[in-house]
Specification:
By secondary structure, the chain is mainly α. The protein is built from 15 helices and five strands. It has helices at residues 34-56, 60-78, 85-88, 100-119, 127-138, 176-188, 196-210, 217-231, 243-248, 250-263, 266-303, 309-319, 327-334, 338-350, 369-376; strands at residues 9-13, 18-22, 324-325, 355-356, 366-367.
Length: 379
């Protein structure tokens, strides 16, 4: 199928409304547009360079955790959740009660991604895996009544307050089995010659158009991008997430998806997706460069702590995964008495490694602020 001849689907009359029935995508794809080839080359190179960082950065898994937390926070924010990075890294007890529902949605996303990445070591990318991921995503959150882990058995819609004023009505639930079987087959069809980044772009469009769950489709669809790249070996670690780019260009993102459904312009969508991949991979490389530079600076500061340096190194290693701690947590982590832990934290704060966040005399929290800023400063 040439992009230029693609027909995205048709509107099907249901009871008092019309739903959109998308065309199947498990087929050969080609295009005449030379811009596509240039973008595909740039995106492939940028992704390869980002992946190289994950192979050469020491202890990279420490930093991947923060990548996942940032993605969880940003992807959830697109859906209306209002949790900031500073809150996303805290324990639930430190979150104000009125903010805990938002916090739980972000933490569920982290757990869902971690679980899915682990599952990929044993299972191929599949609808079964996405259902399990969705179940974790929705557990105990505001969408827990929206059949977590199950594909919908009723009609849903996007935008508006009902089917009568919806901006878009996805396919009828009776057609989901065929559509999802076709999509899963497309992920693993070795008999067609379609570059993986193009398959990834088409897969995200198709998933969002099918909208197979009652809730959480946007988050699962964005998570699917990373899972696809990892499952097909384009990324060794889950280090690339498009949510920050899609949030920044939210209007263009939704317009590109709508343009396919209304004007059959699949080429415009794929170009948008590849450009997002290029810019996100470049930002990811810059983040790793900032981490490496910061790590060297922090190591130099720790050396100056003298006899406390060994414990400080151990604590900083923990902070790369959990960048906010209390003195009580430090006592448990390092096996220190409270006085010694307090002295260590105080020395690290004086050295500029930690920053007290609460202003309280008791139950103080200390943040590895310079590290948090790597993930918070618009990256």
């Amino acid at each position: 199928m040439k992009f230029e001849k693609f027909v995205s689907g048709n509107w099907v009359k249901q009871y008092q409304y019309k739903s959109f029935q998308p065309a199947l995508i498990n087929q050969e794809w080609s295009w005449d547009d030379p811009r596509m080839n240039v973008l595909l080359e740039k995106a492939t190179r940028a992704l390869g360079e980002l992946n190289a960082f994950t192979l050469i950065v020491p202890d990279v898994d420490l930093f991947i955790r923060m990548h996942i937390i940032k993605e969880a926070n940003t992807s959830s924010r697109i859906e209306g959740t209002r949790t900031e990075m500073d809150e996303a890294v805290l324990d639930e007890a430190a979150i104000r009660p009125e903010r805990r529902d938002d916090w739980r949605e972000v933490r569920n996303y982290v757990e869902a991604m971690n679980s899915a990445i682990e599952e990929l070591q044993r299972l191929p990318l599949s609808m079964r895996l996405l259902r399990r991921t969705h179940e974790i995503l929705m557990a105990g959150a505001r969408g827990e009544r929206k059949t977590p882990g199950e594909f919908r058995r009723s009609q849903n819609w996007i935008g508006g307050t009902s089917l009568a004023d919806a901006a878009f009505i996805p396919p009828h639930h009776d057609t989901l089995p065929d559509l999802l079987t076709d999509l899963e087959a497309f992920w693993h069809n070795d008999s067609i010659q379609v570059p993986h980044l193009v398959r990834c772009a088409l897969s995200h469009y198709q998933f969002e158009t099918i909208h197979p769950f009652l809730d959480g489709n946007g988050r699962i669809g964005r998570l699917l991008i990373t899972l696809y790249l990892v499952s097909h070996g384009l990324l060794s670690k889950p280090s690339l997430y498009l949510s920050a780019h899609l949030e920044k260009h939210r209007g263009a993102y939704y317009d590109a998806l709508t343009r396919v459904r209304e004007s059959n312009d699949i080429g415009h969508w794929v170009r948008f997706f590849l450009q997002a991949m290029i810019e996100t991979a470049e930002n990811g490389k810059q983040t790793f460069q900032r981490i490496l530079a910061l790590r060297q600076e922090i190591d130099d500061l720790i050396v100056r702590l003298g006899r406390r340096a060994e414990k400080a190194h151990t604590l900083v290693r923990h902070l790369y995964q959990e960048p906010v701690v209390s003195v009580n947590q430090v006592t448990d982590l390092l096996g220190l008495k409270y006085y010694a832990a307090n002295q260590l934290v105080g020395a690290m704060a004086e050295a500029g490694i930690l920053q007290e966040e609460t202003g309280w005399q008791r139950n103080r929290l200390f943040a590895f602020r310079r590290y948090l800023n790597v993930f918070s400063d618009g990256n």
